[in-house]
Design goal:
With about 900 residues, the chain is α/β, with parallel strands linked by helices. About 30% of the residues lie in helices and about 20% in strands. The protein folds into 6 domains: about 5-255, no CATH class; about 275-340, no CATH class; about 345-565, Rossmann fold (3-Layer(aba) Sandwich); about 570-635, Arc Repressor Mutant, subunit A, CATH 1.10.10; about 650-825, no CATH class; about 835-870, no CATH class. This is DNA primase.
């Protein structure tokens, strides 16, 4: 093959092919792994990136060559570890030139090139006697593989390891009997941060039982192993492998060279002593210094740095004396530039290891671990897990609910929370004090257990405890800071209790997710499944699942929490006394029901009575009694709002309860999140093409005689309904239910309402039809009735409209239609993957989600990430 006569060789531009061959890469390795990309759209897909401009792709990056490899565990092609080198390098936000580019938003991963040999990498994993070479860059890995040496490429010496944990692909190769050779550029001796990172990588590999050797390239002109192989040949490089140093030998040699060198300064440009110190320390320690934002301390080489000895460390390392305060300021500045959260790193690592986790593992956690098969309890656990991920990734997110495990002693409830969050990121030693040290504990851990929560709940004032749970930030001053700062919470509060009666808030306990523990918790199974559980919870969070209860779930919670409410010995006497009463005073209860004299009725006794009354549905209201305005307790009545008011009748419910022939319709509508009640009006649901719902209010010719047996009600009483005022009517007999009658002639005999119940997942929608006038205009609806149709919504509130009906089918069909439209209005539109949406006036397709943003495909075929508030519902979804 004569390259000079070809512009493209097997999908690779001629100049790119020459570049690969100059790095001593074999034709087979090039064909299987490298290619040229000239289409900017294709490059965007490979790099998972889009520009902010809707009309512009990464045109400035093409042409470019791209290299991708295989998954070493399966042998399948993957874009993990993909590298792209544009012909014209671009600059990053800091102005630094980027010769190589990786995928946007992806975790760094090693690159395993395809050798053309089936199961090549799996065989290397299984045979620990074969040495493995690790280098930086795809071309260097290709040169090593061309010599028959298993060579892995990593994006940089500081990558593919987090918080002392190797990338899981590298872990698969490590173990007793394995020897790793690290071959990095010859100029590494001049990059002290890289030297520290190389030592850390070697230490992590050695911790697995592997042996680590360092290959030293002798020439700065041939600084890369591919340059050396291409110039000196493979045999000479294999000699370097034979002469490789142990990590201890390399460190000793490094120390000797370092002592012989002097760090140069430009004294004319840098007069500040502190500035020179910053430069020296930054060059010397660099990325080895990091700020752990969870634990709020500085780490050096993944170990906590003792700041009390910081001045001494600097003197010994750099032979330089600076003040303790200057030393702290310099190191803190460097550490903040390398800040990280270990929990987020853990979740990111899970996301890389399990890109498509099994979400079904979260569907029965309550049953498998606690022995309860109530779906609500599993909902509690799932939402708590998502809330924990949310708090870790976005500190300060609202997560005021607390999951409480309730059961006998010895069931390992606290151990469950400890193993779930991890011992290093969990504590159960939070007291009920509001001192600074206790507040700081909230910001040192991911999971915090309130053990025996009933004791804390009883000691604290209910209002202050609820406020404590609801807080999203805590103001305090951490050590070495000069001022108080607000710190967003990154933790999730959980709890345990041995007591059945633990809730004592008379206004409600919506913040408590109480889960009964009915068996000993299998902790060993939890340890095995922990990573899979958090991977699934992280995936649900990334998909946008909410971690708070829906309105329907909240209603179930309120009922379930009654089993855990504290009881008061006065309650039985109080309830017996107020039975049958419409109102009562606190003094009446204390004096008459409980026999407490007026002089002994203190604040505590009044609060106990108030708690009993609130729990049982009474509320305070001022009433005029004998010319005096007194505070009384009255029964709480569910209020309806909107322009329609309320008829105050409950006869439809009575008809449903006692009449087995009432028809029920079930709408299978899932995952509706009910918003505020939408009240129908005539205009909303009047369809000129549908006679079943058409209104005739403007065309009626009713008889106004109240003595007319066919029109027993005055139609004018139904024409207006005062805002926010309920018109109370005397209860009537049980309403009729829909039967096989073909018309409404029976209303001539019995003018009571019809009733229809429509069962939905939000509760029953109750619809009634009440005759208010006969329709005498035979041309429109002969023999029909003008009826007041009323819908009572399960979420509260109601709606009314006046329609003309002739047959039972009209009522039945019209009621179902409007009920379905109401249900549809309860579902707020929200972005979802594979759903159409409007973006900037253009219809787009939602294809993915990443880091809180939605990826959409535009009509031009380009992909772009946008915020949720930039998307809206299509006009014709």
């Amino acid at each position: 093959m004569i390259l000079s006569t070809l512009s493209v060789v097997n999908g690779v531009l001629e100049r790119h092919w020459k570049e690969f061959k100059s790095s001593a890469i074999s034709d087979t390795i090039i064909d299987l792994n490298f290619r040229t990309i000239e289409d900017s759209r294709e490059l965007d897909r490979v790099l998972n990136r889009n520009t902010k401009s809707r009309r512009k792709h990464s045109d400035h990056l093409v042409p470019a060559w791209c290299v991708s490899g295989v998954d070493p565990l399966t042998g399948e092609n993957t874009l993990e570890g993909v590298q792209v080198k544009p012909d014209t390098p671009s600059s990053d936000k800091k102005g630094k030139l980027q010769k190589y580019i990786g995928a946007t938003g992806a975790n760094t991963a090693p690159l395993f090139l395809n050798t053309g040999i089936e199961n090549f990498w799996k065989a290397i994993i299984e045979d620990k006697s074969k040495p493995v070479l690790i280098t930086e860059g795809a071309k260097k890995a290709g040169a090593g593989l061309a010599l028959g040496i298993p060579t892995i490429s990593i994006p940089g010496v500081t990558t593919c390891r987090k918080n002392g944990r190797l990338h899981y692909w590298l872990e698969a190769f490590a173990g007793f009997g394995r020897t790793f050779y690290l071959a990095f550029d010859a100029d590494i001796i001049d990059k002290r941060p890289v030297q520290y990172a190389l030592i850390s990588l070697a230490r992590d590999l050695s911790a697995t039982g592997s042996k680590v050797m360092i290959i030293t390239l002798p020439s700065l002109e041939l600084k890369g192993m591919d340059d050396f192989i291409a110039t000196k040949g493979g045999d000479e490089f294999k000699k370097l492998i034979d002469e490789a140093s142990t990590i201890e030998e390399w460190k000793k040699e490094l120390d000797e060279k370092r002592k012989a060198q002097e760090i140069e300064f430009d004294d004319e440009e840098r007069k500040s002593r502190m500035s020179r110190a910053y430069k020296i320390i930054s060059q010397g320690w660099g990325d080895s210094i990091r700020l752990n934002t969870l634990k709020k301390y500085i780490e050096f080489d993944n170990s906590r740095m003792d700041l009390d000895l910081l001045k001494l460390y600097i003197a010994l390392e750099f032979d330089m004396d600076i003040s303790k305060e200057d030393a702290h300021s310099i190191v803190m500045s460097i550490a903040k530039a390398n800040a990280y959260n270990p929990v987020v790193e853990y979740l990111d690592d899970l996301e890389a290891r399990f890109p498509s986790p099994d979400l079904s593992i979260l569907n029965n956690l309550a049953l498998r671990y606690f022995g309860t098969n109530d779906p609500l309890h599993n909902t509690y656990i799932k939402k708590s897990l998502i809330a924990a991920v949310s708090r870790a990734r976005r500190p300060g997110e609202k997560a005021e609910d607390i999951c409480v495990l309730v059961g006998e002693q010895g069931l390992r409830k606290s151990t469950f929370w400890k193993e779930l969050f991890g011992a290093d990121w969990f504590t159960d030693e939070l007291s009920d004090s509001s001192e600074k040290d206790e507040l700081m504990k909230l910001h040192y851990f991911w999971g915090i257990e309130l053990a025996e929560i009933e004791h804390i709940y009883k000691k604290k004032d209910v209002s202050s405890f609820k406020k404590f749970l609801s807080n999203t930030v805590d103001p305090f001053r951490i050590p070495y800071d000069r001022e108080i700062k607000e710190h967003p919470r990154a933790c999730l509060l959980v709890a345990t209790s041995n007591e059945q009666e633990l809730l004592n808030d008379p206004t409600g306990s919506r913040r408590f997710f109480v889960v009964p523990v009915l068996k000993e918790i299998p902790i060993e199974e939890l340890i095995r499944e922990r990573d899979l559980i958090w991977a699934a919870a992280n995936q649900l969070y990334q998909m946008g699942h909410q971690w708070w209860l829906t309105r329907a779930e909240s209603a179930q919670q309120a009922e379930a929490n009654k089993d855990y409410q504290t009881s008061d010995p006065w309650e039985e006497k109080v309830l017996s006394f107020i039975r049958g009463r419409d109102w009562v005073t606190t003094h009446d209860i204390l004096f008459t029901a409980l026999g407490i004299e007026t002089g002994r009725q203190d604040i505590m006794s009044q609060k106990r009575v108030a708690g009993i009354m609130k729990i049982n549905g009474w509320h305070k209201q001022r009433k005029w009694i004998d010319g005096h305005a007194l505070q009384t307790w009255v029964r709480k009545v569910e209020k309806t709002s909107g322009s329609c008011g309320s008829c105050g009748s409950n006869q439809s419910a009575q008809g449903f309860e006692h009449d087995p022939h009432t028809k029920t319709y079930v709408d299978h509508v899932d995952h509706i999140e009910p918003d505020k009640v939408s009240f129908v009006t005539n205009e909303q649901f009047s369809d000129p093409h549908d006679p079943h719902t058409k209104t005739y209010v403007d065309h009626l010719e009713p008889s106004h005689s109240k003595n007319d047996p066919h029109d027993p009600h005055d139609p004018h009483t139904f024409q207006t309904f005062p805002e926010k005022n309920s018109v109370q009517h005397e209860p009537t007999e049980k309403p009729n239910t829909i039967s096989s009658k073909k018309d409404f002639n029976f209303w001539l005999i019995d003018p009571t309402p019809l009733s229809l119940h429509i069962a939905t997942h939000l509760g029953d929608i109750i619809c009634t039809a009440t005759p208010v006038a006969t329709i005498l205009n035979a041309a429109k609806m002969p023999g029909g009735y003008e009826c007041l149709m009323t819908w009572q919504w399960p979420t509260g509130g109601q709606a009314q409209t006046t329609v003309g009906l002739t047959e039972a089918g009209d009522f039945e069909e019209g009621a179902k239609k409007i009920a379905k439209e109401w249900l549809k209005k309860q579902e707020p539109w929200q972005p979802q993957v594979n759903r159409d949406a409007m973006y900037g006036g253009e219809l787009v397709k939602i294809v993915g989600r990443w880091q809180g943003k939605w990826q959409v495909e535009l009509s031009s075929g380009r992909f772009q990430y946008v915020r949720a508030n930039q998307l809206s519902q299509p006009k014709n979804p």
